[in-house]
Design brief:
This protein is mostly beta strands and 413 residues long. The chain contains two helices and 34 strands.
Length: 413
């Protein structure tokens, strides 16, 4: 199925590489890391181990400052209460804990966010870990709580390329945002859980000259104050796995599960449930969604306006969006399984059911909508009448007008 999807994407020019034999790739992925498996650029003092706690260092920041480029800072078991956020600048380190769960976990804990205070703006956010001036790290086997985010990569002051990092086997909870990345570079996140955030689970924003490259694998997000995953100005996905989220679960968010704006992303083998407004929200972007479940999407609000629950909402920005949906189940949503506002949507092998409308099409921002049926779509399959969500055209995957208007505000970073 994935080969079919990529062949379709190649035909329409949606993927960046791999359509004519190029190999492509990005810094930090596909073999550019060190022999220890790190995502770093190399050139540091590999093999140096800096333990913490230690009588040599009065704080974790002191241990990190003393570690040479390429070293491993081994953070022992226990809850490490932080009096100040940690900053890594000008070098690449490996930060290794004792595991993210259980009594022997390694937990870095800052002050917990005040529930009644406004959400801190991205540019003012302070993380448990902060990366500046070329600083980067591979982060392994630890838990984070507190501050405005667990990990913050701020927007650079110049045209810096951004860090190259890997985050694996990490638990994040009780913070404003789980991960806040506002630079170029590349990040690989895997085997990670994020829960109980006041705002987004993960927020990624590249720059116009340095788009972000990311990978996400086996990520579980739940009980999120706003979005599950926010992506803005990322490169389009490619067959090397760049800009792909694979095996992601988003369970419970007060905004869309995945929002992609002005860039691109792929979502494979994933599950989105009990999010608000939309399961997947696409604006001015190119998105592939394959072999995923989008279920029980709830109505939400943007500003003062109410937005109906939609499985996949695709709308034009400065230009039409482009979405390819293949092999998905999109069910149990109040308004529409798929809504296309002034954009281009291709569908193949999807099951759409239990919504007021299977497919909604409306003009938007001066652009008309287009649906391209790739075949194999089935609508209104096994929808229990007791749910009260029988579609208005059962058994037919036919676009209709529902009078829906675009939400007046973008999802917030």
């Amino acid at each position: 199925m994935r080969a079919f999807l990529l062949s379709v994407a190649c035909l329409v020019g949606l993927v960046a590489v791999g359509c004519s034999g190029e190999t492509g790739g990005s810094a930090g992925f596909g073999g550019s890391g060190g022999e220890d498996g790190s995502g770093g650029e190399g050139g540091g003092v590999a093999g140096v181990l800096v333990p913490y706690p230690s009588i040599e260092f009065g704080s974790l920041q002191e241990a990190i400052d003393a570690a040479p480029d390429g070293a491993t800072v081994e953070i022992g078991a226990g809850v490490h209460e932080l009096n100040a956020p940690i900053t890594i600048s000008g070098k690449h380190l490996i930060l290794a804990g004792n595991g993210p769960r259980g009594d022997d976990r390694t937990e870095l804990k800052g002050p917990l966010p005040e529930p009644d205070l406004p959400i801190v703006a991205p540019e003012d956010s302070v993380g448990v870990l902060n990366f500046t001036d070329g600083g980067s790290a591979d982060i392994r086997e630890m838990a984070f709580k507190g501050y405005d985010a667990a990990i913050v990569v701020p927007a650079p002051d110049d045209d810096a390329p951004g860090p190259v990092m890997e985050i694996s086997d990490v638990d994040i909870s009780d913070t404003v945002r789980g991960i806040l990345w506002r630079a170029g570079g590349s990040v690989h996140i895997k085997d990670t859980e994020i829960s109980d955030t006041a705002h987004n689970g993960m927020s990624f924003r590249g720059t116009e000259t340095r788009p972000l490259v990311f990978r996400g694998k086996n990520i579980f997000l739940s009980d999120l104050g706003n979005l599950g995953i926010y992506v803005n100005t990322a490169s389009t996905c490619d067959e090397n796995g760049n800009n792909v989220f694979d095996d992601v679960t988003i369970l419970g968010a007060n905004g869309p599960g995945l929002a992609v704006i002005n860039g691109g992303a792929c979502l494979f083998n994933s599950r989105i449930s009990f999010t608000h407004t939309a399961g997947v929200y696409v604006q001015g972007a190119a998105v592939l969604v394959q072999d995923s479940y989008i279920l029980y999407i709830l109505p939400g609000t943007f500003g003062v306006a109410s937005a109906p629950g939609i499985g996949v909402l695709v709308l034009a920005g400065a230009a039409p969006s482009h979405a390819i949906l293949v092999g998905n189940e999109i069910k149990n949503v109040p308004h529409a399984s798929v809504a296309n506002l002034g954009s281009f949507v291709q569908l193949g092998g999807n099951e759409l059911a239990c919504a007021a409308f299977n497919l909604v099409g409306e003009p938007h921002e001066g652009f008309n909508y287009t649906f391209d049926n790739l075949g194999g779509n089935v609508c209104d399959v096994d929808c229990p009448a007791t749910l009260g969500l029988r579609t208005s055209n059962p058994g037919e995957c036919v676009p209709q007008s529902s009078g829906i208007q675009a939400p007046p505000m973008l999802p917030a970073e």
